[in-house]
Write a structure and sequence with these properties.
This protein has 175 residues and is mainly beta. The protein contains 1 helix and 7 strands.
Length: 175
């Protein structure tokens, strides 16, 4: 049976992900275990590159068991997955060394233009209020030109050092 995708995309396409999917195993009454799909909506959409696609089955897991005969023979039935449905998911990465995200075709938006994938994606660091205040105080003393841009300086002097171990090691005549 030939499967047809609703919205075919290519490997290397830049996409925006609105939700991801995970495949989990759920316990049900009667010693039944089911493999199910869970969709997780993202608070902020992620931009990444399609690195592949695969078909992921869902269904009921039948565990294997051993049976013994009166003659002492052991018969083993291996476990298997009774497939109910097969889902096609795209594999999307934010960076070359980052974890794969699985996304359904309907949860992707193709972006136009080229996108260079970073070696390792990391979100911008969160600054605390104390660090922001210290940066504002430091940058007030840096001279600016008529357009408000910072000017280059030949030597930079540190006005305040908070860590006592560093106070004796600072050279204010740096060139």
């Amino acid at each position: 049976m030939k499967r047809k995708l609703i919205n075919p995309r290519n490997i290397g396409d830049k996409v925006t992900i609105f939700s991801t999917v995970d495949f989990i195993y759920e316990d049900h009454p009667g010693n039944k275990v089911k493999r199910a799909i869970i969709r997780r909506n993202l608070e902020t959409p992620l931009v990444g590159v399609i690195t592949g696609g695969s078909y992921k089955p869902t269904g009921t897991v039948n565990s294997g068991h051993e049976t013994y005969s009166y003659e002492g023979d052991i018969d083993y039935d291996p476990g298997y997955l009774a497939i109910d449905k097969v889902h096609f998911v795209y594999t999307v990465k934010l960076g070359l060394l980052n974890t794969d995200y699985y996304a359904l075709p309907g949860d992707l938006l193709t972006n136009l233009g080229s996108h260079k994938i970073p070696v390792k994606y990391a979100p911008p660091p969160e600054w605390c209020d104390l660090a922001r205040d210290n940066q504002r105080k430091e940058m007030k003393d840096v001279p600016r030109d008529s357009k408000g841009r910072w000017m280059k300086q030949s030597g930079y002097t540190v006005t305040s050092v908070t860590h006592p171990a560093l106070q004796g090691n600072i050279n204010n005549d740096s060139k």
